[in-house]
Amino acid sequence: MTKTTILAAATVLLLASFAGQASAAGAVGTAASRLADADCNVPSYRNSWQDDEVQGAVKLAVLVDAEGNVQESKVISSSGHVSLDKASQRASATCKFKAAAKDSSAAPVWAQVQYNWVLN
Questions:
Q1: Nearest Cα to Cα of residue 36 among 100, 88, 111
Q2: pTM, entire model
Q3: Are 41 and 90 in contact (CB under 8 A)?
Q4: Distance between CA 108 and CA 15 in Å, rounded?
Q5: What is the rounded average pLDDT for all residues in the chain?
Q6: CATH code of the domain made up of 4-119
Q7: How far apart are CA 112 and CA 9, in angstroms?
C-alpha cells in the first residue's frame, strides 16, 4: 500500500507597493517577519486521487490581513489537477500568520503558500 504525504510550506512574497524607500525597508521587514511562519492545515487527500496517483505542486498567492488571517487566495502555479488546486485553496483559507503589531496600520499583504502533493 502506498503512503500519502502532503507537505505545506509558506514562503514570503510581498506584492504591496510602498511610497518611500526608507519606510519601505522597515515595512517590508515587518511584513516579512510576520509572514515567515504560517500555521496551515494539511489538506485532505482523497482515496480516489491515490488510485489515480494524482500528484503535483500548487503555489498560491494569499492575501493576509493585519490579524494574520487569509482573506483571499489565487492559484499562481497549478499542479495540473483542478482537484488538488481547489483542495489547496480550501486549506490555505485556514492558514494563520502572525498578526501585525497592535499600534500599526498594517495594510493587507500578499504571501505565497505552496502545497506539495506527493505519493510515497
A1: 111
A2: 0.73
A3: no
A4: 10
A5: 77
A6: 3.30.2420.10
A7: 9
